[in-house]
Amino acid sequence: MTEKNQTLRCPTCRTLVLAGSEDFPFCSDRCRLIDLGKWSSGAYRISSPILDPDVLEGLDNQPRRPDDDEDTSH
């Protein structure tokens, strides 16, 4: 199967989208903008463990921000 024939689901609305589509991986500009809005509002985060001991020590010495305690899951 060639790349243009592959399909994935739109991450926003779950509609099937061809890999060669102009809006890929989204099905439309609307879904692309909804996803962008979620990133900019903080609904999505990229998180991974911090493994550098120097960075961990520096973070332990910083005061916590009030928004660190908020639950962002919906």
From TrEMBL:
Annotated Basic and acidic residues bias: 62-74
Protein name per UniProt: DNA gyrase inhibitor YacG
Top-rank lineage group of the source organism: Bacteria
Region (Disordered): 52-74
Organism this protein belongs to: Silvibacterium dinghuense
One GO MF term attached to the UniProt entry: zinc ion binding
Presence of keyword Transmembrane: no
UniProtKB keywords: Metal-binding, Zinc
GO biological process per UniProt: regulation of DNA-templated transcription
InterPro entries in alphabetical order: DNA_gyrase_inhibitor_YacG, Znf_NHR/GATA
